[in-house]
Amino acid sequence: MALLGLIGHPVSHSLSPVIHSVTCLIKGLPHRYVAIDVSEREAVRSVLRSLHDLGFLGLNVTIPHKEEAFRCSVRVSRDAEAIGAVNVLVRTPDGWEGHNTDWVAVEEALRERGAVGFRRAVLIGAGGAARAAAYALARTGAREVVVVNRTESRGLELSRTCGERFGVPARFAPLSELGRVVRGAEVVVNAIPAGLSHDADLPLDVEDLRGVAFLVDLVYSRTGEPPATRLGRAAGCEVVDGIEVLARQAAHSFRLWTGIDPGHRLMEHIARSCVRWSGG
C-alpha cells in the first residue's frame, strides 16, 4: 500500500480523494488518498517534509500553495519550471519532484475542440492555476492574452511572464473592467473561485459573453454549477467545466505516481457521479 494525498486550503470540497480512491480500486491498487488542509503558506515546507518522511508516494497541490510547492521541490519538470508552479509532487529519495498537469489539461481540452490559433483570450486570475492556463493558451497559439485580476501587481507580473517566458503578447486589465474586456474574445478562462469564497466575485453577465466561442472554468462545485460555467452555458459558449479540467489533470497525476494511465474519462465519470449522488 502507498499513501497519496492532496494539500491546500480549503480541501473539504475537493473531489480528488474520491476520484483517486475509486480509480485505485478499479485498477487493483491498495493505495490510500487523503486530503490535508494546510492553511498557512509558511507551514507548507515543513508539512511536505513530514509527508515525505512518512513515506507518501505522491501529492496533489491545490490553491493557494502551488507556487510555494514549486519552491519546495528539489527538482521540477521543464513545464513546471516555465510556469513557476506545481500541482503534482512525486516522491524521490531526496525530496519531492514537482510537475504541472494543470496546463496540459487545459491545452488538451481546447485542442480537442479545435480551439487553436485564436486571436484573443481573456484569463481571469493571476495565481498558480492561472499561470498554468496562460502557458496552455500560449501553447495553443493564442495571439494575445488579456490578464484580468483584482490585484494589479500580480496581474502585471503574469502579463510580463506571458511575453517574456511563454512567448505570447499580454496585457493587464483590472477586474472591474472584465465585462468590457471579454467582449470580442474567442476564449475566456476563469481561474478564480468566483461564487465559492467570500472574497471572489465575478463582475460578468450573460450578455458580456455573447459571441465568446469557448469558456474554460478551472473551478468546480459539489453543489451546482459555479458562476462562470453557468454564465458560459447561458451565453451559448462551448464550456469546458471544472470537473473536466480536474479529471484531465488527475489522470496525468495518476500516471506520474503509478505508471498507469487510467484515462480522464474514467475519472470524469467518477467525479460527475459523486456530484450527482451528493445532490449537486
Structure description:
With 280 residues, this protein is of the alpha/beta class. It folds into two domains: 3-100 and 246-277, 3-Layer(aba) Sandwich (Rossmann fold); 103-240, Rossmann fold (3-Layer(aba) Sandwich). It is built from twelve helices and twelve strands. It has helices spanning 16-26, 44-53, 66-72, 78-83, 102-112, 128-139, 152-166, 178-182, 206-209, 227-234, 242-258, 264-277, and strands at residues 3-8, 32-37, 58-61, 75-76, 88-92, 95-99, 121-124, 145-149, 170-174, 187-190, 214-217, 238-240. The strands form two sheets. The protein has a six-stranded mixed beta sheet with strand order 2-1-3-5-6-4, with helices on both faces. It has a six-stranded parallel beta sheet with strand order 9-8-7-10-11-12, with helices on both faces. Helix 5 crosses helix 6 (128-139). The protein is globular, with a radius of gyration of 18 Å. It starts with a strand and ends with a helix. The model has no long low-confidence stretch (mean pLDDT 94).
Shape: globular
> Low-confidence stretches at least 5 residues in length (pLDDT < 50)?
none
Structural class of the secondary elements?
alpha/beta
The domain tally reads: 2
Total DSSP helices: 12
Strand residue percentage: 15-25%
In CATH terms, the superfamily of the largest domain is NAD(P)-binding Rossmann-like Domain
Run of helices and strands: EHEHEHEHEEHEHEHEHEHEHEHH
Strand order of the largest sheet: 2-1-3-5-6-4
According to DSSP, the number of beta strands is: 12
Largest sheet: 6 strands, mixed
- What is the typical, i.e. mean, pLDDT? 94
Report the end-to-end length measured between terminal Cα atoms. 32 Å
Helix content bin: 40-55%
Rg, nearest Å: 18 Å
CATH architectural arrangement of the largest domain: 3-Layer(aba) Sandwich
* CATH fold descriptor of the largest domain: Rossmann fold
